[in-house]
Design brief:
This protein is α/β, with parallel strands linked by helices. The chain folds into two domains: about 150 residues, Rossmann fold, CATH 3.40.50; about 210 residues, Glycerate kinase, domain 2, CATH 3.90.1510. The chain is about 35% helix and about 20% strand. It has a six-stranded mixed β-sheet with strand order 3-4-5-6-9-10. Helix 1 packs parallel to helix 13.
Length: about 375
């Protein structure tokens, strides 16, 4: 038996590699002789940098930059000297995992650190920058990133705006006179994990700001502030990018990358699947197991389980999803190549308890699924006899 184990990370509890190991150990209890192929995945959010560096030859760099709430954080990025390519995972500098749950604030958080990483890449001579978006703590449309690169956002009295998405409601003028000129000489490729637009019910604020600490009233005001920013950009550039797929990624940073960097967009799971040679691993497999923290209708917008299921479906291999939680709409995936889905929680528990116990819960769930598979094989043998 060959089983491919290709999960994403489980937010606030396990990296993709740790999740794959937990699943592997659970399966091995029942199938010690099985061929278990670990293939940790990512879709542009946290963990994408690790997945890429595991597949290509590059150098890991570490930089001290501004974190989402203004404190200093150490962020990793990758440098590929042969192609003079920098790979920047915005979650490293501006990610949700950098902010304790009680301190998350979508109104004030800034993407400035991501811009500081781009500056480092420019200083080292990057000719191409791959910017992976997802897992952000921010909802500032990339304004903080652009400020780090020299842009200025001013109110009606010509004063610089405060950090964060909420302040963008006061935006009166965008000054690009000091924007780093090297940006025009660099090719940007943006890797996204969702296809959400910038504004509206499926936009950055309504879809993602709640997990970043925003209240219902704050979500509505943030959406209006982002729409106002888009209006100002349209007046400046003569183009409106707010409805392009992926513009709502990473708190709207996708919008900024398209409007100010003229970036090309690519689904993150597609890129990572290519680099990890997922299709080659799936070929000849009996089963694929994937997973993520929250598995719901949002996953259909480009998350890892959907991408893995598409690859497996091309090879006629069944797929099981193991998730921290099964949210509304998860059964929609049964028509997209997923055969079954299971939640980790073995009984009533808090989110904190579930995160703390996630590796053990994932191990136990994988073991129990393996026992069902073994029982099914035994029943088939009885029927055939």
């Amino acid at each position: 038996m060959k089983i491919v184990i290709a999960p994403d990370s489980f937010k606030d509890s396990m990296s993709a590699a740790e999740a794959a190991s937990a699943i592997q150990s659970g399966l091995q209890e029942v199938f010690p002789e099985a061929e278990l192929v670990k293939c940790p995945m990512a879709d542009g959010g946290e963990g994408t940098l690790d997945a890429i560096l595991a597949s290509v030859s590059g150098e890991r760099c570490n930089s001290l930059v501004t974190g989402p709430l203004g404190d200093s954080v150490e962020a990793s990025w990758a440098w590929l000297p042969v192609s003079r390519t920098a790979i920047i995972e915005m979650a490293e500098a501006s990610g949700l995992q950098l902010v304790p749950v009680a301190q998350r604030n979508a109104c004030l958080s800034t993407s400035r650190g991501t811009g500081e990483l781009i500056l480092e890449a420019l200083d080292i001579g990057a000719q191409r920058i791959v910017l992976t978006l997802g897992g952000s703590a921010t909802n500032d449309v990339g304004a903080g990133m652009l400020e780090a690169l020299g842009a200025r956002f001013l109110d009606a009295e010509n004063r610089p705006l405060l950090p964060g998405g909420q302040a963008l409601a006061e935006l009166n003028r965008i000054d690009l006179s000091s924007l780093d000129p090297r940006l025009a000489e660099v090719g940007f490729e943006v890797v996204v994990d969702v296809d959400n637009p910038l504004c509206g019910p499926s936009g950055a604020s309504y879809t993602f700001a709640p997990q970043k600490g925003a209240t219902r009233n704050e979500i509505a005001s943030l959406d209006r502030a982002l729409a106002h920013f888009a209006d100002c950009c349209q007046a400046l550039h003569g183009e409106d990018h707010r409805d392009h797929p992926g513009s709502g990624a990473a708190g709207g940073l996708g919008f900024a990358a398209r409007a100010f960097f003229n970036a090309d967009f690519r689904p993150g799971i597609e890129m990572v699947a290519d680099l990890t040679q997922l299709a080659r691993h799936v070929q000849g497999a009996d089963l694929v197991i994937t997973g993520e923290g929250c598995y719901d209708a949002q996953t259909l917008r480009g998350k890892t389980p959907l991408g893995v299921a598409r690859v497996a479906r091309q090879h006629g291999v069944p797929v099981i999803v193991l998730a921290g939680t099964l949210g509304e709409g998860y059964t929609n995936f049964y028509s997209h190549g997923v055969d079954a889905a299971f939640s980790l929680a073995s009984g009533p528990m808090t989110l904190t308890e579930a995160c703390q116990q996630a590796p053990e819960l994932l191990h136990a769930l994988a073991r129990d699924i393996a026992r069902v598979l073994r029982l099914s094989a035994q029943l088939h043998r009885v029927q055939d006899a």
